[in-house]
Amino acid sequence: SELSQYDLLLSSYLSQHEIMRSHVQNYLKSGWLEYFTQGVYKKPKQVLSWSSALSAVQFQLDLPVHLAGASSLAQQGISHYLSFNNENIQVNSTSSLRLPKWLTDSNWSLSFKTSKVLDGLEDGDLTEMVVNNQTIKASTIELAVLEVLENVNDESSFTFATELFQGLTSLRPRRLQSLLERSKVIKVKRLFLFLTHYYHHPWLKRLDETKIDLGSGKRQIVKGGTLDKKYLITVPSQFQLRA
């Protein structure tokens, strides 16, 4: 049944499915459910993971949060060899949300961020995947890359981004074009194009940069870096764009 697919069951979701408090009490007595925390129940003997919590929030509470950035890339087999901030699972939302206490209190290793990369999500920005037998929503590889770039603010996060970019040989140009045209974060778009040119990826020639608003003036990516003349961003001096 629909209920059996979740490791965690929220009381609000149970009541939507007309499972009353008395039913829940019976389930608890018979051992079909166990109490997890206020308003949250779990399957007996179920090993819970962060995906149990994320799936419950996404599909039972319908909150607009998604697995993001490097965490999304790792689950899609892209950055498994990279280890930057991977002790926490990155979860993004495009607007600030009030998250349930059980989600933020518990030791899920989830790190929440209100991302500015996009003002809102469209069909095709997210993908569904199964992690530890739980279906979750995650940013597509193209969006996740931009989410990684949003976090670049020093030499080590810049280096992480360059290592990631080396392997991005097969991104979808139409999806990228859509994201870059819709995003209002100038710094992210300039850095994305800078790194794309740096690694001469084959899909670059299928992007139309004239349709991407890159703003005006200089932007600091890395403190004390060298100004790249083409995109007017400061980058570590060893990463000068080849003319």
Provide a descriptive summary of the structure in words.
This protein has helices at residues 11-16, 21-30, 50-59, 69-75, 101-105, 141-150, 155-166, 173-182, 186-198; strands at 8-10, 34-37, 40-42, 66-67, 89-93, 110-114, 126-131, 134-139, 219-220, 226-228, 233-235. It has 243 residues and is of the alpha+beta class. The longest helix has 13 residues, at 186-198. The termini are far apart.
- In quaternary terms, these chains amount to single chain
Overall body shape: elongated
Strand order of the largest sheet: 1-3-2
Strand content: 15-25%
Q: Uncertain segments of ≥5 residues (pLDDT<50)? A: none
What is the number of E strands?
Answer: 11
Please tally the helical runs, counting DSSP H or I stretches of 4 or more residues. Answer: 9
Let me know the largest β-sheet: 3 strands, antiparallel
